[in-house]
Amino acid sequence: MKLLFDLFPVIVFFAAFKLADDPHQGVLIATAAAIVATLIQVLYAWIRHRRVEPMLLITLALIVILGGATLLLQDERFIKWKPTAVNWLFAMAFLGSEFIGSKNLTRRIMAGHMNLPEAVWTRVNLSWVMFFLALGTANLYVAFNFATEVWVNFKLFGMLGLTLVFVFLQALYLMRQADSLHGKER
């Protein structure tokens, strides 16, 4: 359910784009729809939990700024930067967590589920940094080297697919690390 909640604006963007006849108008309509969808997402989070996660607020700011520039200037280049900006901000947050606080972000998120050596948490956290940097770079490559229709498909299916593959590989790595740790305890 959380995945659908997180993907809600992307799905709305995709659907609005696909329903439009003209790709240029489609991006503009989809951008406006994504701004509204993100506002609804933030409002829902606030009503439901009486708080909004900082990353969701950052995403809202980026969609309003870059989406607003897209609509105001009638130039799709601005909205095409948004996934890169979000992914690179994630990379900076994960990297910054290596130096700020006693636990990196990966360990804070997952430590309740498994106990691993600090070196493993660092490797996993830095792999997320590299993944987010690569995903942001891939977005720029597709956005500015392929037709808008290809980018819209990549934005939903490509980025989601790459993320799911990465999460699966991370899970395999973590299971292997946990197994080797348990093997040493026996």
How are the SSEs ordered, and which strands pair?
Elements: H1 2-19, H2 23-49, H3 54-73, H4 77-96, H5 105-110, H6 118-145, H7 148-185
Helix pairs in contact: 1-2, 1-7, 2-3, 3-4, 4-6, 6-7
In short:
The protein is an all-alpha fold. The protein has helices at residues 2-19, 23-49, 54-73, 77-96, 105-110, 118-145, 148-185. The protein has one domain.
Give structural notes.
This protein is mainly alpha-helical and 186 residues long. The chain has one domain (2-185). It contains seven helices and no strands. The protein has helices at 2-19, 23-49, 54-73, 77-96, 105-110, 118-145, 148-185. α1 runs antiparallel to α7 (148-185). It is globular and about 55 Å long. The protein starts with a helix and ends with a helix. The mean pLDDT is 92.
**Which structural class do you get from the secondary structure elements?**
mainly alpha
Mean pLDDT: 92
The helical percent reads: over 70%
Global morphology: globular
SS elements, strand count: 0
Amino- and carboxy-terminal Cα gap: 38 Å
Pattern of helices and strands: HHHHHHH
Beta-strand portion reads under 5%
Number of domains: 1
Total helices: the number is 7
Radius of gyration using CA atoms only: 18 Å
Major β-sheet annotation: none
What ranges have pLDDT less than 50 throughout 5 or more consecutive residues? Answer: none
